[in-house]
């Protein structure tokens, strides 16, 4: 049984956990009870932890402190959605405990699990039972008890997992929505998968994701910044095609070129010989090639020069922290060029593309914040699943970041209408927060899966109407839902109605929707705007 782990072991544990969540991410997604398409739990947790796996793969022989710090930092920046943020905080707390240590036994591991739980609970304003928090808390408590009985890390991890299984099964009884659907909490299941994969890695049975999947998910482009031109052994990429003019054996050319460099590729047929080689002597390579025929094409590139130019280009393109030229600025999350235009016309400095199904990471939000030339930057998440990721940004930048907890785009627009660029920081917080509470948001989308939810028998592809965060109705006829929403708005005496139509709605049909609301709500001012948003056919604001 494993007694302790070191930095290299921790690296393997995290990569194993990332692989397991990647493998099971669709299973986690399908545990989501609510049928509305959104940034699903499995996808968000997988992208978050694979940010750590990607950085750890590039970290050779790390000590325990460095490995845990690397994982925590990558996950903090890569966190997506509430589940991803909570997962990152669990690992961040663990890294805090492991700081200064070169080895971790059962007792220290239990403390690390508990510190992770404490960090996660601090970040959640209203912790709910029957979630990943519950599973993590009970597993950590069991780990602490187990460490007093046996200080081997494997024993402690086994105990934590057994308790996590019990806690996960009980989430169905703690959350009424889960109970009705008969499923366990998706985030809690994800944490259990991570703990189990870590145990397997402790035993030398690391979980491995299908080749390329997890790496491709987080790797957007090659990173050339970790080595310099001195690491390039052969400086010239030499390529040429020879028109074969004699019977000389191309294998002899292959043998000769292999002594000149590396990355040799030689392909031949009856008419040509094609060569690719990295060498410090391209002239000699070309001279030897002439023995086989005349050149059709020749290309020689200085890889050291290319590398230097690449680094300079990346440095020039890297987002800088804009010097403040004004006291206040705003960034907003939204999807759809029409909605982006609305926010920019209201004075938003930066748009972060995202929303439902596209939860931006903490790093995405940080990048946008740093580009705003202001001392204080307000963030409008406009989605409840993005708020926590936005709240992590403040400690990552020298700017002051204030998150206005808007849960919908209409709330964000109303908040911006009450933003005073010349006002005080808290004055704006109060005004924007108070204003967003006056907005009722209605949205029409589609059912992403079959579901029996809140008394509705929902089938994949049905139209779904949301009023606030609650399911308002479902139908195969979108007009039925629009009429019902208009009648509710009329009955509640709303005076201002704005309809934003999505990318899948033609203007002529959107105009008919606006006419319907105007007819049913004759005392209200009805406005129609193209939002261009995906996923949601209509977003409707009523005040």
Question: Could you explain how this protein is built, in words?
Answer:
The structure is a single chain. The protein has 21 helices and 16 strands. The radius of gyration is 29 Å and the shape is globular. α1 runs antiparallel to α3, α3 packs parallel to α5 (81-98) and α7 packs parallel to α10 (186-202). It has helices spanning 7-23, 25-31, 41-57, 64-78, 81-98, 106-123, 132-149, 153-174, 176-181, 186-202, 213-218, 250-258, 282-289, 303-317, 337-345, 362-370, 387-391, 409-417, 425-436, 478-491, 507-520; strands spanning 236-244, 261-268, 272-279, 293-302, 326-334, 350-353, 374-380, 400-403, 440-446, 451-453, 456-458, 463-467, 470-475, 496-501, 525-530, 538-542. α21 links the parallel β14 and β15 (525-530). It has 543 residues and is α/β, with parallel strands linked by helices. The model is unreliable at 213-229 and 314-318 (pLDDT under 50). The strands form four sheets. Strands 13-12-9-16-14-15 form a six-stranded mixed beta sheet. It has a four-stranded antiparallel beta sheet with strand order 2-3-1-4. A four-stranded parallel beta sheet has the order 6-5-7-8, with helices on both faces.
């Amino acid at each position: 049984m494993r007694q302790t782990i070191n930095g290299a072991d921790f690296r393997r544990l995290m990569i194993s956990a990332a692989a397991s969540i990647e493998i099971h991410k669709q299973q986690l997604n399908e545990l989501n009870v609510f049928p509305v398409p959104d940034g699903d739990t499995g996808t968000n947790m997988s992208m978050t932890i694979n940010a750590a796996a990607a950085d750890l793969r590039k970290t050779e022989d790390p000590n325990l402190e460095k490995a845990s710090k690397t994982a925590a930092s990558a996950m903090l920046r890569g966190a997506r959605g509430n589940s991803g943020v909570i997962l990152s905080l669990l690992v961040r707390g663990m890294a805090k405990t492991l700081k200064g240590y070169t080895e971790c036994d059962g007792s220290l591991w239990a403390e690390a699990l508990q510190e992770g739980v404490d960090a996660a609970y601090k970040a959640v304003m209203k912790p709910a039972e029957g979630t990943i928090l519950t599973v993590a808390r009970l597993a950590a408590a069991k780990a602490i008890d187990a460490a007093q009985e046996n200080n081997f890390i494997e024993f402690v991890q086994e105990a934590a997992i057994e308790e996590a299984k019990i806690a996960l099964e009980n989430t169905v009884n703690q959350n009424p929505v889960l109970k009705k659907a008969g499923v366990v909490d998706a985030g809690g299941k994800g944490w259990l998968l991570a703990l189990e994969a870590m145990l397997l890695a402790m035993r030398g049975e690391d979980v491995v994701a299908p080749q390329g999947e997890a790496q491709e998910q987080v790797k957007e482009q090659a990173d050339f910044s970790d080595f310099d031109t001195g690491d390039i052994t052969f400086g010239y990429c030499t390529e040429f095609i020879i028109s074969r003019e004699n019977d000389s054996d191309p294998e002899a050319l292959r043998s000769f070129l292999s002594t000149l460099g590396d990355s040799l590729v030689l392909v031949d047929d009856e008419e040509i010989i094609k060569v690719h080689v990295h060498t410090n002597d391209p002239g000699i390579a070309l001279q030897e090639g002439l023995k086989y025929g005349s050149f059709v094409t020749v290309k020689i590139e200085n890889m050291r020069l290319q590398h230097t130019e690449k680094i300079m280009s990346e440095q020039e393109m890297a987002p800088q922290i804009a010097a403040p030229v004004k006291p206040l600025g705003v960034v907003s999350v939204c999807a759809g060029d029409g909605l982006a235009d609305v926010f920019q016309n209201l004075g938003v400095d930066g748009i972060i593309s995202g929303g439902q199904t596209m939860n931006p990471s903490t790093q995405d939000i940080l990048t946008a914040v740093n580009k705003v030339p202001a001392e204080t930057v307000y963030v409008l998440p406009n989605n409840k699943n993005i708020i926590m990721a936005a709240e992590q940004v403040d400690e990552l930048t020298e700017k002051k970041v204030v998150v206005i907890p808007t849960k919908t785009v209409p709330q964000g627009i109303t908040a911006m209408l009450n933003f005073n660029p010349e006002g005080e920081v808290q004055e704006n917080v109060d005004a924007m927060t108070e204003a967003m509470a006056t907005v009722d948001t209605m949205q029409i989308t589609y059912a992403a899966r079959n579901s029996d939810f809140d008394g509705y028998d929902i089938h994949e592809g049905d139209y779904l109407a949301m009023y606030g965060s609650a399911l308002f109705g479902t139908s195969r006829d979108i007009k039925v839902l629009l009429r019902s929403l208009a009648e509710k708005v009329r009955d509640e005496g709303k005076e201002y109605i704005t309809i934003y139509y999505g990318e899948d709605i033609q203007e002529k049909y959107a105009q008919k929707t606006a006419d319907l609301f105007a007819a049913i709500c004759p005392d209200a001012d009805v406005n129609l705007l193209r939002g261009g948003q995906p996923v949601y056919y209509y977003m409707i604001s009523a005040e």
